[in-house]
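Researcher: We plan to redesign the surface later, but first we want a full-length starting point. Tokens attached.
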């Protein structure tokens, strides 16, 4: 495994809006080692989601190079990029993005269906992923029958089930109350302890406190990059 999991050099992303250019990222250098947890902070419009989308192989830079796990992914075709994304990255969203009239188990199985994994194996792996987030007893519940925190845990299980080494989460606690947010952070910290790399975007300093590094963006540039001893999130009894 290369020393750097993520290596971005001079990353810029410009959007074309009619006659205007929006410079969402203006030359970002960022190196992330495997097994770390990074919080990306910054005011609205500073480029956090743009950076996350590029890191997550959902989008490509207009300038600069991006190596993911040693491979240059900055100039891949859409299908090559989708392939890398499927193997390397699990996503967690602010709004959970679960299918509502579908059981927790089926939601978690979904990424494995796209990979063509047979149903018995899917079932087994999805149950194991739900167990990892403490939801074995809710596998038959539909999303609408789960609390917000439970829905986010299902979403984390879905991000985990493909065994991707990187988990990316854009505002994963944005729709959760404080106590539930800490429970979600405890689960994400558990994944880091198992060797995953967790990259999250947050507006909240008390959430960023659970990461081992905080990177702050302003106007498309990194203005601050600090390592810290992460607070330990507690799972409520
Ligand atoms: N698809 C797009 N087309 C045009 N401009 C865009 C697009 N996506 C983002 N932008 C612009 O790029 C800049 C950075 O947006 P981005 O979504 O990365 O910010 P953010 O830091 O995630 O903000 P927030 O905290 O509000 O989610 C903003 O000025 C935004 O308006
Ligand atoms: Mg955003």
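Model: Full-length starting sequence:
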């Amino acid at each position: 495994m290369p020393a750097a999991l993520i290596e971005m050099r001079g990353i810029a992303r410009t959007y074309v809006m009619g006659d205007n250019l929006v410079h969402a990222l203006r030359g970002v250098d960022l190196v992330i080692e495997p097994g770390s947890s990074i919080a990306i902070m910054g005011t609205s419009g500073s480029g956090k989601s743009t950076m996350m989308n590029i890191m997550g192989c959902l989008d490509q830079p207009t300038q600069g190079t991006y190596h993911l796990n040693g491979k240059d992914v900055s100039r891949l075709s859409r299908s090559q990029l989708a392939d890398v994304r499927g193997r390397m990255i699990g996503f967690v969203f602010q709004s959970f993005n679960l299918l509502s009239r579908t059981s927790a188990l089926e939601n978690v199985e979904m990424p494995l269906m796209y990979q063509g994994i047979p149903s018995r194996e899917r079932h087994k792996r999805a149950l194991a992923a739900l167990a990892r987030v403490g939801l074995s007893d809710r596998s038959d519940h539909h999303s609408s029958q789960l609390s917000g925190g439970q829905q986010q845990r299902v979403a984390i299980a879905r991000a985990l089930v493909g065994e991707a080494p990187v988990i990316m989460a854009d505002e994963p606690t944005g729709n959760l109350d404080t106590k539930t947010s800490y429970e979600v952070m405890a689960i994400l910290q558990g994944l880091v302890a198992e060797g995953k790399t967790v990259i999250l975007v947050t507006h909240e300093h008390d959430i960023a406190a659970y990461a081992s590094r905080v990177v702050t963006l302003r106007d498309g540039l990194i203005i601050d990059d600090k390592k810290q001893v992460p607070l330990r999130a507690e799972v409520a009894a």
